[in-house]
Structure formats: structure tokens, C-alpha cells
Known about the structure:
Blueprint: E1 3-7, E2 11-12, E3 18-25, E4 33-39, E5 46-51, E6 57-59, E7 67-72, E8 77-82, E9 91-98, E10 106-109, E11 113-117
Parallel strand pairs: 2-11
Antiparallel strand pairs: 1-3, 3-8, 4-5, 4-9, 5-6, 7-8, 9-10, 9-11
Amino acid sequence: xxxxxxxxxxxxxxxxxxxxxxxxxxxxxxxxxxxxxxxxxxxxxxxxxxxxxxxxxxxxxxxxxxxxxxxxxxxxxxxxxxxxxxxxxxxxxxxxxxxxxxxxxxxxxxxxxxxxxxx
Length: 119
């Protein structure tokens, strides 16, 4: 059974870097695409970026200049770093598995983690 679990700080100060980790169990990070997705309060889901099965990263144009996604195959984890955060980055952040190779066919999600950007 595939499970994904997000971890990281729930509060980040403006201008600092948001760092989250997604740990995968029951599946391998090298056989699917894995995404970071967020949902700001009162808004819809927004994809941030993904790591492909080969280890390359792709980013949404809206956050590309501030985002880095990487993976650790030995730990079966992938991480999100979002620099220079503002209160507009406050959201529930999810990691998810895409079985369709980059066409948003998500079949497993983490439970989500609330991140608040505030001083």
C-alpha cells in the first residue's frame, strides 16, 4: 500500500525559505512522477512542481523562479524548497503520486501539511 507523508515546519517567516519533505512508503520514487501541490485558503489546488522518475524536476511557471525540487533515492524522499516566501504562500501543501507520467493522474496523496507564512 502506497503512503505519502509530508513533513516540515508549520510556520515560516516572510522572506525565508520554506522546506518540506515527502516520504514515500510502499512505492519507489524512481518509478513514477511525484508532485508538490498546494491549496491556499479559500482557493483551489495549485501545482508547484514535480520530480520525474529519472530525477529531473519540472516547475509551474508561477513559482519557477523561487522553487527547487530534489530527491533522495536512498531515503525514498523528495523535497520542496520555496525561497523568499510571502504571506501569499500560506497554504496546505500536499505531495502526490502521478501514475500517468506528467498528466496529473494522481492516485495517492499525502494528508497535507499546513504552512503559514507570518512574522
